[in-house]
Amino acid sequence: MQTSPLTKKVRASIGTLGVLGIELVLMDAPPTTAYLQIYTDKRCQANCRFCSQAAGANGDMKQIARGQYIPSDLDEVVRRLGIAYERGYLMRACIQTAMYAKMWQDTTYLISRIRKTSQIPISLSVFPLSDEKYAALKGMGVDELVVPLDACSPELFSRIKGKEADSIYNWDTHLDGIRRAVRIFGRGSVGTHLIIGMGESARDALGVIDVLHADGVYSALFAYTHLPGTRNVPANLNVNHYRTVQLGAYLIRKGLASFEDMTFRDGKVVDFGISRARILHYVEVGDAFKTTGCPDCNRPYATETHHETFNFPMNPDADEIKMIKEQLGIVE
Fold this sequence. Notes:
With 332 residues, this protein is of the alpha/beta class. The chain has one domain: TIM Barrel, CATH 3.20.20. The chain has helices spanning 14-20, 74-86, 103-117, 131-140, 154-161, 171-185, 202-214, 239-253, 276-285, 318-328, and strands at residues 9-13, 33-38, 63-64, 67-73, 92-96, 122-125, 142-146, 190-196, 217-223, 263-265, 268-271.
């Protein structure tokens, strides 16, 4: 039996609170997943350069990328979450974690409270854990497990969230944690996060996506967002680069092309390994440019503004498809 933490709070994204009716939020694309984070008033023991909750950051701890995660009453959030799931407003709960002394207690308590209220599918994003804890999480009802790499190469990982960032994470340990999770949760039920725009090339990004795909791991793409109070990263975010990675990742994910099929020059894609007609078809379908991640995750405006969209929370319309073609340099 899980014991109650001293504080019964949970962080919830402002969009989630809007769907739950706790906050009044005007939304053109409501979230289809409830985005939550276990609550602590302490900073994470890790020191990822991009994170406002990092040990060495002095940013707003409510901020995750562009999202505001508001400390809220846990009992009320969980109660309304069950109602929202029953009525079809929310289809999944996604729990983010942080590294601190009572992380495991707070995480398992929140999972158990959600599971007592409803059968909503639960995803958990966490740093590598032991096999015993992975198995315990699965037994509690977690059906999707995410271990975020964030960076697309060992070198960038070290600079952004590893040794060179004065942090405690290690690329090989993260990869091992991901692969061990696959053995427990199964292929297709383990994912990672990759933040695009932190100095990687398209070759870096698509290379690691291809390797993970072969291991049965899906990659959720995020656009790098610099937050006040965080340390600098070697940012190279632009929408053209992002679209290229999205399209390549889609082709890999759907088994339409592999990394070996693709041709690169100076780290950029010059040939996806399939015909131009097929590329045009997949671009026009639009699925490649929608939010990726766990089932039913749409993350509206998680890394976007109203002026520039990287991940579409719904099917892109005809004007948006035209814009995407221009961003990819596709001329009909």
